[in-house]
Amino acid sequence: MVIERNRALGELTRTRDELQRSNKALHQFAGTVAHDLRSPLAGIVGETALLAEEVEDLRQESITFGIRLVQRCADRMRHVIDDLLAYASVGGQPRLADVNLSRIVADVVEDLTATISHAHADIRTGTLPTVVADPTHLRLLVQNLLSNAVKFRHPDRPCQVSIDTTTPFRYSSGASAAPPCSPSSKPSTRR
After folding, report:
1. DSSP per residue over the chain, as a string?
2. pLDDT tens, 21-36?
3. What order of strands is seen across the sheet that includes strand 188-190?
4. In this predicted model, what pLDDT tens digit does every residue of 149-176 receive, in sequence order?
5. For a designed S-S bond to 153, which of 30, 111, 159, 186 qualifies (C-beta 3.0 to 4.6 A apart)?
6. Options 1.10.287, 1.10.3470, 1.25.40, 3.30.390; which CATH number does 2-89 get?
7. Is this structure's pTM higher than 0.85?
8. Alpha-carbon distances of 172 from 95, 180, 187, rounded to whole Å
9. Spatial distance between the Cα atoms of 106 and 128, rounded to a whole number of angstroms
């Protein structure tokens, strides 16, 4: 019995050590990727700023709008990279905060404008709550859900995506546990 316990304890120790090594490698990878993405992003931001200044003088509103859209998308990308670096530096712990879900969805829709337009998709957003979540993780979740809804649409039907809550969402941030969710109060994404 003691031998079996020692063997099991040894196996648990090896597994723990491997998980720690794997997590350390993952955090280093995330940091490297984030740093590697910053250089091209800085170029995008800088060049679009210069283009915006030149185009504004020409009074080309549609071009100016497009450049401003690229600048906002690049800025959000920079925030995602910064959040990824912060996430890696704190050992992968989520940063919980009050997050305006309507703002997240609006930003994602703006980032996916070309994809949505190409698919002739109709995206409708209702009133969405402010939730307690990690802003970066929530944004990536919404982006994946929306892009998949458009990407995997039925080829013979118009793509219509509705993002809404079906009942009022009530949550007191002073509570220590997550708010209860019934199936009717969860945000929904329907194709």
Report:
1. -HHHHHHHHHHHHHHHHHHHHHHHHHHHHHHHHHHHHHHHHHHHHHHHHHHHHHHHHHT-HHHHHHHHHHHHHHHHHHHHHHHHHHHHHTTS----EEEEHHHHHHHHHHHTHHHHHHTT-EEEE----EEEE-HHHHHHHHHHHHHHHHHT--TTS--EEEEE-SS-----TT-SSPPP--TTTS-EEE-
2. 777 777 776 766 666 6
3. 122-125, 160-164, 188-190
4. 988 888 888 899 999 987 655 554 444 4
5. 159
6. 1.10.287
7. no
8. 18, 11, 18
9. 11
Domain ranges of the chain: 2-89, 97-190
How are beta strands 160-164 and 122-125 bridged, if at all? parallel
Is 97-190 a domain of CATH 3.30.565.10? yes
Type of residue found at 100: N
What does the alpha-carbon distance between residue 191 and residue 176 come to, in Å, rounded to a whole number?
A: 35
Neighbours of 135 (CB within 10 A): 20
